[in-house]
Amino acid sequence: MSPPERSTVTASTAQSPPSSSTDEPVPPVSYGLSKPVFLVSAGIILVSVVFALLLPGVFNEAISTLNTTVVSSIGWYYVLAVTGFVAFAIVLAVSRMGEIRLGKDGDEPEFSIFSWFAMLFAAGMGIGLVFWGAAEPLTFYSEAGAPPNAASLPDPDRAERALGQTFLHWGLHAWAIYVVVGLAVAYAVHRKGRPVSIRWALEPVLGKRTDSWIGDLIDIIALVGTLFGIATSLGFGVNQIAAGLDHLGVLPNSTTVQVVIIAVVTILATLSAATGVDKGIKILSNLNMGLAALLLITVLILGPTLFLLRDVVSNIGYYLQNFLQLAFQTLPFRGEEGATWINGWTTFYWGWWISWSPFVGVFIARISKGRTVREFILGVLLVPTALTFLWFTIMGGTALYEAVLGGVDFTNAEGGIDANTALFDTFSHLPAGALLSGIAVLLVSIFFITSADSGAFVIDMIAHKGDPNPPRITRIFWACTSGLIAASLIWVGSLSGEASGMTALRSLALLSALPFSVVMIGMCISLWRSLAREVKVIERLELRLRQREFMERYSEEIADQVEAKVEEKVASEMDEQFESRLEDGFGQQFQDQLDQRVHEQVVEHLSTYTGEIQLPPVEDGEAERADEGHVRRRLRNPFTRQS
Fold this sequence. Notes:
- The protein is mostly helical.
- It is built from 24 helices and no strands.
- The chain is elongated.
- The chain crosses the membrane at residues 37-55, 75-94, 114-135, 167-189, 217-236, 256-277, 289-309, 347-365, 377-401, 432-452, 473-492, 504-528.
- InterPro entries: BCCT_transptr (IPR000060).
């Protein structure tokens, strides 16, 4: 199974000053090439590629065996961790932490809602949805690819289960992974003013060790996983473009054509990376959104429209109803067959999304300055998921309609589904199928360009200590490297008669997901600590504000009432003494003492509301009495929790 292709775009970002009340001082940042990160990453990549080129069979067997062993051993861990990320994102969104802004308190979002959603869609949809839009539901429907606990179901039930399983792999779980990484990076960059690098998202946990060899190791894992992911996406994804061109009769599908396609895409991506990406991101994202919407609406109109509209509602209901069962599915009683299927699909997807999360997360963080935490989570978690569900229902639903109700057999000679041609085979049963295939090829090609372009930019930012504007020459280097790796492995694979080099490279990308999943758990802890600390500060400030507003509104009225009551009480208690003192000629002196006593008690009563006692000046005659043990009682403040 080839990996799901994931495309994203990124741009330079200006460092925002930290928020005024909650941030620690920002450490001085010295941008420049991080030699440990660059040299170690380049060394790992070089050794892996040379090994794959010289000994493709041995390399593939060694890496694939290692990957299979790891995935088989920790599949349950991936299932728990990724479902935990979903719960973590939802809790943050509904709590008070969701009110905190990713930036200074007064910052406004950089992009409009439409542009933001368009770029999220470009980041989340990518080549993967085009590649698997019809292929994955058809695979899960076929007898050879169906989940073991669904293979014996009747055709209609198996088709419903096929789309529900697809929704699991591309829905909330995938986007929750991106939420964790993107939100942690966005908070560190926009709220704290830290560099654009993965390591700084772990600063609350690592502390001073963030800018040490531990931070270098985190960035190396992110960089290597991202480059391997981009290279494998270029290598495997080019198969769909070549298959589409062959289907349209433009060019035959051959190794030479595939290498030429990669070369053209790499050149265009390199030019974009060299000239800047801010404007290009917006244009390409909006263009992708327009083309995807055009393709989606056209298929909806030309296909079984009423069936698809009913299917959208039914699929969402099935997904929500079976969410927990699907989310925790490990098929332990299905034995080796169940473990093989889970590891080949669900666990594979969780590892693949995690390996791509540094790439997509940095991009999402870049475009989300000025959004609140709640806006970020709801926008990233729900909107792309809804668009993904709509896409799979229309593309996959159309294919399943033809298979179940139309009697079309999409399986190949081996009884499986050819993922490269499944979408084009589906379009061939619709009016204007050639035009739809042409739009799909164009859409995939644009996603290729944005993927290689933005991938080079993200990698270079990480390699340059989080520099939001890394040097042009190194951006070109990374863009060329990803294309060169993919083209070389495809060419060598054709000479040896197998694509073992690309398969092993994909396995390396998946292996990087294991250590990075631990990094993501650290991100959750760091993010929770930071946001909880901010909420406490906000609550204290709100308490002070309520006290101030209360006193400004009622202080004069309360003071008058308290003073009147105190005067009345004191006067009644000391009336006889006052009259006797008057007869003895001490009236004025006693009147002064009485006024001071009243004033003291008024202040003491008012302290009930203000929380403070301001003692009046004490006359010389009263100082002696204070020294003898006269202590005024401080009353309880109702705004605090003093015991």
